[in-house]
Amino acid sequence: MSFILVAFSTWLHTLATIIMIGYFAFASLIYLPVLERRFQAQALRELLAQVSARLRPWFGGALLAFLVTGTYLMLVNPDYLGLGRFFANPWSLLIVIKHVLVLAFLVLAVVPERAYLRQAGEGDPEALRRYRLALNLDLVLGAAILLLTAFAQAV
Question: What is the total count of domains within the chain?
Fold first, then answer.
């Protein structure tokens, strides 16, 4: 049963990763560049707000999946030596760094949408540039989180 639970948790954790990082890859690399050329600032803001509203339940589900599966996978990992033993082994160090990046990722996922999209709708071209930068940074952070996860699994 433990094998099945670990496999299912790993699958669900991976699926949540695809949802989170996939959105930023798609938004940053594909649809935002296209939409910027086709829509005026107000229309673009309204469209992005609709996309964001549709995405929120998926993000919420992904966050819940991360919390539950990540906690379980960490607790069953033989390299986990207990809370507060952040530097006890290479795995622990990588996981701490990963979680710091995850927090930065989450902040960048929420703050720019609230701050910059409203300003972009008011015609501020600099706000859209900042929003695009935040999307790109989240994409880079997502890739770094995946890389740290791979290294943690390899040590």
Answer: 1
